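Lay summary. Proteins are chains of building blocks that fold into shapes, and those shapes determine what they do. In this project we predict the shape from the chain. Here is one chain we studied, written as its sequence of building blocks.
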Amino acid sequence: MKIDDAEWFEIQFNPGEALEKYGIRLPTIPSEDIQVGFTGLSGRVNLQQAFSFYQYVCSTCQINDLTEPRILDFGGGWGRVARFFLRDTKPENIYIVDTMEYAIECLRATGNPCQVIHNQPRPPILGLPEQIDLVCAYSVFSHLSEEYFHAWIDYLLSVLRPGGYLAF
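And here is the predicted shape, written in a compact code that computers can read:
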């Protein structure tokens, strides 16, 4: 069943309807304070920013051409980007990783059905499958030192399948 972009965005605000109508278990949205703490934004504008990135990634990386793609949301915070990929693949194929314990707590508190991994500041990420189709990272690398940036880019490229995508 294909869900158009406008409906997919709107249904993010009603996880019960997503489950009932499409059989997709969406996480809830954290409080405004939590959202602002991660991105400086909250509500519709916060999700619209993430959705625009998601749309760009889907169109550029041709994610819709893959059957059940394996997706890594690197530095995923409370999961505002990863949630949109739930219409493209199974939750067990979406990995949200973050170094902050607080982010992991938020992911669990929202009932995020994806694979949640608390990773260390340096590679590797334990618990990933052998090859990932897409690694996305929204506003992560600008927060890293040059040393950590290089270490993570090298690692993330190594976990991609041949022809996979890194989008940030």
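What the prediction tells us: The mean pLDDT is 94.
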